[in-house]
Amino acid sequence: MNQAAELNRRLAIADFLAFEELPDGFVVAHVTTPEATASIALQGAHVMRYQPAGQAPLIWLSKLAKLAPGKSIRGGVPVCWPWFGAHPGNAQFPGHGFARTVPWQLLDAALLPDRRVRLEFELVQSEATRAQWPHASTVRNIVTVGPELEVELATTNTGDSPFELGQALHTYFEIGDIRQATITGLDACDYIDKVGGSARKTQRGAVDFAGETDRIYLATHGHCEIHDPVLGRRILITSTGSRSTVVWNPWTEKADKMGDFGPDGWTGMVCVETANAAEDVIQLAPGATHRMTAQYRSIRE
Ligand code: TA6
User: Fold this and answer.
1) pLDDT tens-digit profile of 228-246?
2) Rounded-to-integer distance, Cα 178 and Cα 100, Å
3) Where is the active site (predicted)?
4) Which pLDDT score, from 0 to 100, does residue 23 have?
5) Residues 6+ apart with CB under 8 A from 232
C-alpha cells in the first residue's frame, strides 16, 4: 500500500482531508473547509497552498516549483530550521537548515468543532539530520486551516544541554504587484539590510519596494500588514515567539538566477517571514519548548 493510501486509511476525514501521492512518492495532504482550502506536503510539513473561499490565494507558489524528494519548494510556507540563513559554522550545510527538505510524519489530523482542520507534523530524525544537528530535540509543525491560516513551530530540547536555535516560517504571500505593495507595522524598527552590505538601518514609515529587498527587522512587535491595492486587500500577519521579521523580494535579476520563479513570478510575491534570526536566535534550555506561531488572514480593502 503506498503512503497516501495508508494515510487515507488511517487519517482521512470525509469531505475535509484526503491524501495524494505524486510521482517520486511525494505525498500531499489536501484540506477542504467551508472557509478555505489548503495543500500541505509531508516533506518539510510544507504548506504549499492556502486560499480563503471567494478570494485569490493568500499564499504564493511558483509555477515552476519543484515537488520532488529532497528539493526545496519555491513558495508556500517553507520551514527554516534549526538555523536561518547560512549555517553558522559549516558552509557545506544547506541554507535555512534541512527541515524543509526531509520527511515529516503526520502525527494527528483533527476536525475541530468550528470546522477548522488541524494537522500536527513531526520531523523524522535520521543519521543525516543528526550529522548536521547532534542535539537531542523534537520539532513539530501544527497547521490549522480555517478562515485564517495558523502555523505553529514547536521545538523541544530533549537533551541535557542547552542549544541555540534559529528558525523562520519563510512565507511567500501572493500579491498583485510588488511595485505597488507596501508593508506597515515595521515603522521605527531597526533592520539588517542584506542588500546593503548588512548595514544596520531604521525603517521610516511603510516598507515599499523599488528593487531587490532582503531585510531582517529586529525587535519587531508581532503584527504587520501587507497592503495590496491591486488585489484590493490587506493581509494581516500576527506572530508570537518571534522578535525578528524578514522581508524579501528577489526582484528580476536574482529571481532569474534562481531559475524557479517563472517569468515575472517575482512581481506577484513578497516574503514576510516570522523568524528567530540574527540576535533573536533562541537559547533553548534542557526540557524547554519554544513555540513560534504565525496567523495569516486577509481583509478586503
Ligand atoms: O529570507 C530571505 C532569504 O534568506 C534570501 O536571502 C534568499 O536567500 C531567500 O531567503 C531564499 O532562499 P532559498 O534558500 O529558499 O532560495
Assistant:
1) 999 999 999 999 999 999 9
2) 26
3) 170, 273
4) 87
5) 300, 301
Beta pairing class for 190-193 and 213-218: antiparallel
Listed in sequence order, the residues at least 6 apart from 157 whose beta carbon sits closer than 8 Å to its beta carbon are 135, 136, 137, 163, 284, 285, 286, 287, 288, 289
Say if residues 271 and 78 touch (Cβ distance below 8 Å).
no
Strands 104-111 and 182-184: unpaired
Global confidence as pTM: 0.98
pLDDT > 90: what percent of the chain? Answer: 97
* Cα separation, 250 vs 131, whole angstroms: 31
Domain ranges of the chain: 3-300
**Residue in this structure with the C-alpha cell 538601518, named with its chain if needed:** 201
Pocket, ligand 1, Cβ cutoff 6 A: 72, 85, 95-96, 170, 194, 214, 246, 248, 271, 273
* 274-300 exposure pattern, b = at least 16 Cβ within 10 A, e = fewer: bbbbbebbbebeeeeebebbbbbbbee
Query: Which atom of ligand 1 is nearest to 273's Cα?
Result: 1
Residue nearest to atom 14 of ligand 1 (CA): 95
Report whether pLDDT(210) > 80. Answer: yes
Question: Is the bond leading into 82 cis (omega within 30 degrees of zero)?
Answer: yes
Report the CATH number of the 3-300 domain: 2.70.98.10
The number of the ligand 1 atom at minimal distance from the alpha carbon of 168 is 1
Residue ranges in 12-164 assigned as alpha helix (H) = 127-132
Q: Is the per-residue pLDDT at 63 higher than 80?
A: yes
